[in-house]
């Protein structure tokens, strides 16, 4: 998600610094960004000059000092509250006082994350969708302390990138994932209970409900660890058993079968074409 956000922000004419745990992560990100920009050139959406300029605007920031000039920081690390909290505590001392801090979290409370920073009034949820260069929507979520200036600046910025915003209250998983993830979780239960195979379930939803991707294919695309984290936030945050993560989803994550990113999930991606695993 971080590389997708860097892609659209750089294409929008802004300098971008990417920070990650290791330089190799940045190298992979740049390769992906280049591949996706090249695809946009081939389809006539942008010119080769746009591609080159966008790539030149993206640099690697090894330390948090590299964020010192940023007007906006978008956190897009692993969907784990402890990881995110640690990042916010660590970066804040390096940021300009008026810099806005945003999180791309799919589910975690914006108010709670904001409280770990030195600027809850300049903190906001900016939930880009996957894949960022293709998906039109960004959910905007205010924490209880987010001020009007921050909300307006953040919304104007996102819209200047050509995205459409939808405003959500700060409830677990906001709007899109509150609706989407229980459906994916139900698809995993359908598989777990033996109602249908991976292929049957995905075919059923593609052709029977006209979804562009089957729910299990989509789960692999999102990342099964991210899906599980979102279901846990829904289950704990809304205290309703209807959000209980499917034990089969838990088992896949425990096995390290996280979907596309680990080359194995409900499909096996190690061969020429994805093969259903059940
Ligand atoms: N996958 C999706 O479809 C999707 C869609 C919308 C939003 N999101 C949200 O975006 C965020 C990232 O999701 P993702 O799918 O890209 O996850 P991912 O697991 O693919 O990538 C997470 C990245 O964060 C990095 N990271 C972890 N700890 C870090 C730290 N302390 N400092 C710097 N970098 C660190 C990892 O090295 C990795 O590159 C999550 O909050 C997720 O909920 C995901």
Question: Could you say what the CATH architecture of the largest domain is?
Answer: 3-Layer(aba) Sandwich
Kindly report how far apart the N and C termini lie: 28 Å
C-alpha Rg (nearest Å):
19 Å
Estimated helix fraction: 40-55%
Summarize it.
The protein is α/β, with parallel strands linked by helices and 278 residues long. It has helices at residues 2-11, 23-42, 48-56, 81-91, 110-114, 148-160, 176-192, 198-208, 215-222, 224-238, 247-254; strands spanning 16-18, 58-60, 72-75, 100-103, 123-128, 137-142, 164-168, 267-268, 275-276. The site of nicotinamide-adenine-dinucleotide has 23 residues, from helix 4 and strand 5.
Q: What layout of secondary structure does this protein have?
A:
Blueprint: H1 2-11, E1 16-18, H2 23-42, H3 48-56, E2 58-60, E3 72-75, H4 81-91, E4 100-103, H5 110-114, E5 123-128, E6 137-142, H6 148-160, E7 164-168, H7 176-192, H8 198-208, H9 215-222, H10 224-238, H11 247-254, E8 267-268, E9 275-276
Parallel strand pairs: 1-2, 3-4, 4-5, 6-7
Antiparallel strand pairs: 5-6, 8-9
The protein binds nicotinamide-adenine-dinucleotide.
Nicotinamide-adenine-dinucleotide (NAD) binds near residues 20, 83, 130 and 226.
Keywords: Oxidoreductase
Family: Belongs to the 3-hydroxyacyl-CoA dehydrogenase family.
Pfam families: 3HCDH, 3HCDH_N
């Amino acid at each position: 998600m971080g590389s997708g956000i860097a892609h659209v922000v750089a294409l929008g004419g802004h300098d971008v610094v990417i920070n990650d745990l290791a330089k190799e992560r940045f190298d992979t990100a740049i390769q992906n960004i280049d591949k996706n920009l090249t695809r946009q050139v081939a389809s006539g959406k942008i010119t080769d000059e746009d591609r080159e300029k966008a790539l030149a605007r993206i640099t690697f920031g090894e330390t948090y000092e590299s964020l010192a000039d940023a007007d906006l920081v978008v956190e897009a690390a692993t969907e784990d509250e402890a990881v995110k909290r640690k990042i916010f505590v660590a970066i804040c001392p390096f940021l300009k006082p008026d810099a806005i801090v945003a999180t791309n979290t799919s589910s975690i409370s914006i108010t709670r994350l904001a409280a770990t920073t030195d600027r809850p009034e300049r903190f906001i949820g900016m939930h880009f969708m996957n894949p960022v260069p293709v998906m039109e929507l960004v959910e905007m979520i205010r924490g209880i302390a987010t001020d009007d200036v921050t909300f307006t600046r953040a919304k104007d910025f996102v819209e200047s990138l050509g995205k459409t915003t939808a405003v959500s209250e700060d409830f677990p998983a906001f709007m899109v994932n509150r609706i989407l993830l229980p459906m994916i979780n139900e698809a995993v239960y359908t598989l777990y209970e033996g109602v249908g195979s991976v292929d049957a379930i995905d075919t059923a939803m593609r052709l029977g409900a006209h979804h562009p991707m089957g729910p299990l294919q989509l789960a692999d695309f999102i990342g099964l660890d991210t899906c599980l984290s979102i279901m846990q936030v829904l289950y704990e945050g809304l205290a309703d058993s209807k959000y209980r993560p499917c034990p089969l989803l838990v088992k896949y994550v425990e096995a390290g079968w996280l979907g596309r990113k680990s080359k194995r999930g409900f499909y096996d991606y190690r061969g020429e074409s994805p093969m259903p695993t059940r």
